Amino acid sequence: AEDNEKRVAFFGQFGWQAKSEPVGTGEVAIPEKFDDVYTKYNNIQKEQGLDLEPYAGKTCQKWVYEITNYPGQKTMRGTLLVYGGRVVGGDLSTPALDGFMTGFEGQKASRDYSANEPTLARDAKGSLAPQTSSAPASSAPKKEKPASSAVPANAWPTD
After folding, report:
1. How far is CA 39 from CA 30, 85, 133, in A?
2. Which whole-number Å values give the CA distances from 65 to 23, 24, 52, 98, in the listed order?
3. Strands 59-67 and 24-29
4. Nearest Cα to 22, choosing from 38, 1, 41?
5. How far, in Å, CA of 131 to CA of 128, rounded?
6. Alpha-carbon distance 67 to 79, whole Å?
7. How close are the terminal C-alpha atoms of the chain, in Å?
8. Cβ neighbours of residue 24 under 8 Å, at least 6 residues apart?
9. Any residues with CB less than 8 A from the CB of 25 and at least 6 apart, and which?
10. Can you tell me the distance from the alpha carbon of 17 to that of 145, in angstroms, rounded to the nearest whole number?
11. Which of 30, 123, 144, 148 is nearest to 83 (CA)?
């Protein structure tokens, strides 16, 4: 992930289309000791086969791209944390205050870190498809209030 083309292609392997230029860049100092926010963020990383613990105390490059094909979301961001030219962490998130954060697959298996759960439908070939429902709106389940331990999308440390 040492150049822009490779970073955009990284999202492509998960079926995401990222705009060709980042909407934000910067450096992120991974803390020596993880607080609750970093522990929960690292849970997302571990679920996708990554782990930030070996990078504790190190500074990573952060690249943020706009994802243009996330079903049901007008604005979706893809964040990559890069150290030594390789992706060591990252996520997909909505910038809204009541938004959500998830791993690169766009789904999550844990309830440790998000108040709202994205639901992605994949067709028989594994391609992304918009989620549809024939149930009337009045029968939709009520959303639960987020737990106090939920990590809001805007909780990402910015240093």
Report:
1. 11, 24, 35
2. 5, 7, 20, 20
3. antiparallel
4. 1
5. 9
6. 10
7. 22
8. 62, 63, 64
9. 61, 62, 63, 64
10. 31
11. 30
| Backbone phi, psi, residue 155, to 5° | -90, 0
The answer to whether residues 75 and 94 touch, using CB atoms and an 8 Å cutoff, is yes
Q: Which pairing describes strands 76-83 and 59-67: parallel, antiparallel, or unpaired?
A: antiparallel
67: DSSP letter:
E
Q: Whose structure tokens read 């079926």?
A: 15
- Which CA distances in Å does 24 have to 56, 62, 74, 77, 158? 23, 8, 18, 10, 11
Is residue 75 within 8 A of residue 64, CB to CB? The reply is no
129 bridge partner residues? 121
83: β partners: 86
Q: Residues 100-139: pLDDT tens digits?
A: 999 999 874 444 444 344 444 444 454 444 444 333 444 4
Amino acid occupying residue 109: A
**pLDDT below 70 — which residues of the chain?**
108-159
pTM comes to 0.67
